[in-house]
Amino acid sequence: MVAPSGSYRIAAYTRAAQALGRPILVVSNNAHSLVAEVASGITVDFGQPEQAYTDIIAALEGLDVACLLATDDSCVALCSRVAACLGLPQNSAEAALLTQRKDLARDALARAGCNTPSYQLIEISKASPATLSIAYPVVLKPLALSASRGVIRANNDAEFMRALHRIDAILATTGQHGHIRDHLLVESYIDGCEYAVEGFIIDGQFHLLTLFDKPEPLTGPYFEETFYLTPSRLGAPQKLQLIEEVERCCVAYGLTHGPIHAEVRLTRAKPILLELAARTIGGQCGQLIEFSLKQKLEELVINGMCGILPVTPSEPEAAGVLMIPITDSGILKRVEGLTAALQCDYVRDIEIHINPGYELVPLPEGSSYLGFIFAQAPSYEQTYKALQSAYSKLRFVTQPRWELENLVV
């Protein structure tokens, strides 16, 4: 497993490997980690990819490696090179790059004949409504940010320019440079319900794990995800249409082996891919797989990387999560109503991930959630209602963030 030492996925994958009886060797960048598997593993400098590659190959000599797993996007290219050297199935670095670059991805999809919105690459410093070749409404997107950060809808010239300047300011704080710092992707706004597809590719063949509904409308101006519910209420013909489009997009990207997480909008005419990632569903939301399919996501991934086909129940159980949105900026003072929310029927757990005293930053500048509410009920509707009920009982008390300027001591 190739992972930055701070990755939250290390512990989950380590436990999964132990449960499957598979010895795991961690390649990371911290020899002094408090995590035993990291400290006893292979230490490399991810900032020196050539030397890291050489060090890993040398350390693996004589070992029987069943699969390589990259936990984070930053490790994908290195992991692909090592897998290629060992003759193990893995997505190519070129294919993985498409999952991280929105402009290159749209070009690849268009060449392959997949469904795409109208889109245009623009240079921030030269952009204006006069340079826009797409009719409003449009959506402006940074090329390489995730979690909807910096994604803004514009309905007219004034909103377009405001969004352009706002995204430019966001990019100035990210440390990005070159092409991905200086350009944006502009797409025609896609009207329709949105879904998330979780699957796995083994030797070029796509296997569906589950399909998530996003029942709340995502119309902008920002696109923060909130509710995920499974199994989907989508009809069989539409579900097949959606999955077939995701399969075509995977082929267009050149993805051949590993987990897949796709975001798709279903219009009246056709499904259109929004994003495609060569990874599992992010964050704590992976728990929904275990709730619904009665299997740990990390175990499914490890088996899949070893070429073992996933076996899923014909009737998965209803499960859902609310990714608690940050609606107001400020400093979090306290969370009220947590006990009452936890006592709602069918609520399994509530996790608050931002501690009091820390700043809350909403989209489009922000990139995190306040926490997560998990529910599992006998039916889809009961699960959805449980999440809504629990959220209605929570109150997040904040105070303004004060800037101290020209302080004289």
Description of the molecule:
- It contains 13 helices and 17 strands.
- The radius of gyration is 22 Å and the shape is globular.
- It has helices at residues 9-20, 36-39, 49-60, 76-86, 93-98, 102-111, 157-171, 179-182, 236-253, 287-293, 297-305, 338-342, 380-392, and strands at 27-28, 42-43, 119-123, 138-142, 152-154, 183-188, 193-202, 205-214, 227-230, 258-266, 271-277, 319-324, 330-336, 347-352, 359-360, 371-375, 395-399.
- Strand 1 (27-28), helix 2 and strand 2 (42-43) form a beta-alpha-beta unit.
- The strands form 5 sheets. A 4-stranded antiparallel beta sheet has the order 3-6-4-5, sandwiched between helices. Strands 8-7-10-11 form a 4-stranded antiparallel beta sheet. Strands 9-12-16-14 form a 4-stranded antiparallel beta sheet.
- It has 409 residues and is an alpha+beta fold.
- The chain starts with 8 loop residues before the first helix and ends in a 10-residue tail after the last strand.
- Helix 3 (49-60) crosses helix 4.
